[in-house]
Amino acid sequence: MSDTRARGWFQVVLGALAVVLLLLFAWKSSELLILFFVAVLLAVYLSALTDWFQRRLRLPRPVGIASGVVLTVVAFWGVGFLLIPPLTAQVGELLAVLPQRLLIWEADLVRLAERYPVVRDLLGPVQEGGSYFGSIFGEIGSWFTDAVPYVFSGLWFLIHAFSVLAMAIFLTANPSLYRSDLLQLVPPRNRVLASDILGELAATLRAWLGGQLMAMAVLGVFTWVGLELLRVPYALAFGVFTGLAALVPFFGSLFSTLLPALYVLPFGGWLWALAVVLLGVV
Fold first, then answer.
1. Left, alpha or beta for 118 (phi > 0: left; psi -120 to 50: alpha)?
2. In this predicted model, what pLDDT tens digit does every residue of 2-48 receive, in sequence order?
3. pTM of the model as a whole
4. Helix, strand, or coil (residue 54)
5. Domain ranges in the chain?
6. What is the rounded radius of gyration, in angstroms, for the C-alpha atoms of the chain?
């Protein structure tokens, strides 16, 4: 009985140690894992396009992959050709007026903090010469720097983008090869179950990616159109930001809803800001 209990404790300790080592490995190799995850997402997208070309047009898989890449590049070029010039102009104008808006928001926060102790305790103390928004943006910047490694900045972006594209193409070209190699790591008696799990994971990931892209597009377009109807300045910039922010669950949508509302609040009043918030909620 004591031997069985000791063996059980040993297995628990060994399992906990394995989990700690796995987490340590993931933390140390986070840059590589992020690149691989992006490559897998791109491979799922290209695989969906390639499968469609194979089913509908009876194209060979290499031709389907090339067609998917070309179609994606053309689509991005078309969207960029239509959106980048006005978007660049709006973002430039928004960045030019943003410091003035920040001063107004800072004054409003100071008044709220002086009037309500709860707000003052929530915002915390401000260092001499500092500001509430300066500390908030500093926290966001530090979090973003920690969350997204430096591999996506500067010249390294091009190198890693090429690496991700190459990995995605190889994964799309012959997915069964990598699937069978991965199954070799599983004991033979569990390979059928592991194969079913991999199939379910692939289907789920494909459905999630398609739904996420559709949600980003719908949110971005509807926000753009809604803000245009509400006559909010820089509606296109806010719409694109809303679509991109949809990648971050909950907080992305929350921030993309509050940002245009805060922008119109100083000169538009509470009703205008409330209408913008209701647009984001709906």
1. alpha
2. 556 666 666 667 777 777 777 777 777 777 778 888 888 899 899 98
3. 0.69
4. helix
5. 26-173, 199-281
6. 25
